[in-house]
Amino acid sequence: MPQLKPKVSNRAESTVNKLRSDITRGVLSPGTLLAELAVARQLGVSRVPVREALFALEREGLVEFSGTGRAYVKELTPRDFEELFLLRISLEPLVTRLAAPAIRKDSRELEQNIAATGAATNLMDITVLDLDFHEIILAATGHKRLIRICKSLRSEMEVWLARMHRDLQARSSETRAMTVNAHTKLMRCMQEQSPAVAERMSREHIQGWREWLPVSDTQE
Q1: Domain architecture of the chain: domains with CATH
Q2: Which helix (H) or strand (E) holds 97?
Q3: In a designed cystine with 97, which of 36, 55, 199, 217 is the match (CB 3.0 to 4.6 A)?
């Protein structure tokens, strides 16, 4: 039997998309109260789709509820970022190795993504295209369970990567060029080298972000 996703109304879905975008882009900062009535009035919907959207965003790790039932934009702690990094560096090299044979045969989607990244003028667009690049590789694995696991992390990854990109842009102002360069190298490696070599390059690519992580309270 196919796994059924929780039903979400069309209005709730549009509300989810709007709130998710505002959270990942930093329009709604961590700790912001998401009062149902206020959000409903702002978006021109009833409270029901807002409630559905808040529960959906809680499942994605972007919203948390207080003991009194109030919803807030979740603040990702240094520990959260560390956990996301560990998951990414554990899963994405495997994804790259499994996807390499398919990418060698057809890399058109990756090429289009890199071209779009090179033409992007908005930092958040670069972040979204960056994640899309890795999702194209993920889809090429054809591994249903791995795809499901990785996609469940997309929203938190978007918050994480958006923060990394903002920090990088503030320091070097070359986020777009660096992203295009790194992705081009990874794609060419998948096209021309063995899956094992592509896996190593993917690990190195992700490891390069390690220095941008906020310091965790658990680290000395």
Answers
A1: 10-73 (1.10.10.10), 78-212 (1.20.120.530)
A2: helix 78-105
A3: 199
